[in-house]
């Protein structure tokens, strides 16, 4: 009797579990219908209802991830796929969860993550051609992205080097311009200094010439004066032509006076009137 009761309880439990599972699956199928018509929000609601009734219903969990991805709630979708791939013993379901996770990462332009997710899916199911295709596509896109990043980085380095070269060239140019300007200023200063020196030399030469001229004139005047004085002295010392010395004149005067006395004596003697002889002094 007890054995029969036990069997009855087991049957009731199995029946209730079956009925519950059928109810969960019914809700899941309702969510699938809504998903196919594009009503992703209502599909999400029904998938969550099914999971609340049966947390082990990984089919509903998998479909929930798809509904969330369609709403672009990518982080929640990835969490749902991770839960399925981590707990499912069904390799096909596990591989599908990893495949769909790769699709979500690809939508987010996370090429490295997508490649790794597809690679994990292929480890579980190497014969999945769709996963292999997606893996090749993501890997090629990743290589192109890395190449573009390298080229961009190289261009940035070249740009920086060119900028440094341009700065260095500009600096050298500025130094050259400054050097040329300094050289021009030095040449100008030198030229002005030379002109000033030449001017001073010319002034000095002019002054020297003036001094020499004045000295020559003074020397000449002194020489002329000395010559004039000497000539004057010579003239004074030299007897003049047709002139008598003082002694000669005095002798002549004395002689004339004697003659005059004689004449006066004769005049008185003969009583004749005579004229005086005028003697001009020439000394």
CATH first level of the domain at 14-150:
Mainly Alpha
Residue windows where pLDDT falls under 50 for at least 5 positions: 1-20, 237-242, 270-283
Indicate the CATH topology of the domain at 14-150: Serine Threonine Protein Phosphatase 5, Tetratricopeptide repeat
Main sheet: strands, sense, barrel: none
CATH architectural designation of the domain at 14-150:
Alpha Horseshoe
Beta-strand portion reads under 5%
CATH superfamily of the domain at 14-150: Tetratricopeptide repeat domain
The helix/strand order is: HHHHHHHH
Radius of gyration: 73 Å
Number of strands: 0
The helical percent reads over 70%
Distance between the termini: 208 Å
The chain-level mean pLDDT equals: 76
Instruction: Give the overall shape, derived from the CA principal axes.
Output: rod-shaped
Number of helices: 8
User: Class by helix and strand content?
Assistant: mainly alpha
């Amino acid at each position: 009797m007890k054995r029969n009761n036990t069997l009855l309880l087991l049957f009731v439990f199995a029946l209730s579990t079956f009925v519950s599972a059928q109810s969960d699956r019914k809700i899941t199928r309702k969510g699938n219908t809504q998903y196919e018509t594009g009503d992703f929000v209502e599909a999400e609601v029904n998938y969550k209802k099914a999971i609340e009734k049966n947390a082990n219903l990984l089919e509903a969990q998998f479909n929930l991830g798809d509904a969330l991805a369609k709403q672009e709630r990518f982080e929640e979708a990835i969490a749902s796929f991770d839960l399925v791939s981590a707990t499912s013993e069904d390799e096909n379901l596990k591989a599908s969860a990893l495949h769909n996770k790769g699709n979500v990462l690809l939508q987010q332009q996370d090429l490295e993550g997508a490649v790794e997710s597809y690679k994990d899916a292929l480890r579980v199911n190497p014969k999945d051609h769709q996963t292999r295709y997606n893996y090749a596509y993501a890997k090629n896109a990743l290589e192109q992205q890395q190449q573009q990043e390298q080229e961009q980085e190289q261009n940035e380095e070249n740009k920086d080097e060119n900028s440094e070269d341009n700065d260095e060239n500009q600096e050298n140019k500025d130094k050259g311009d400054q050097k040329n300007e300094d050289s021009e200023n030095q040449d100008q200063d030198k030229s002005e200094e030379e002109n000033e020196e030449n001017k001073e030399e010319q002034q000095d030469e002019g002054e020297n010439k003036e001094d020499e001229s004045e000295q020559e004139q003074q020397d000449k005047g002194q020489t002329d004066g000395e010559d004039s004085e000497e000539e004057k002295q010579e003239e004074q010392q030299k007897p003049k032509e047709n002139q008598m010395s003082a002694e000669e004149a005095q002798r002549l005067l004395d002689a004339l006076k004697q003659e005059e006395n004689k004449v006066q004596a004769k005049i008185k003697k003969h009583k004749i009137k005579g004229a005086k002889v005028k003697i001009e002094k020439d000394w």
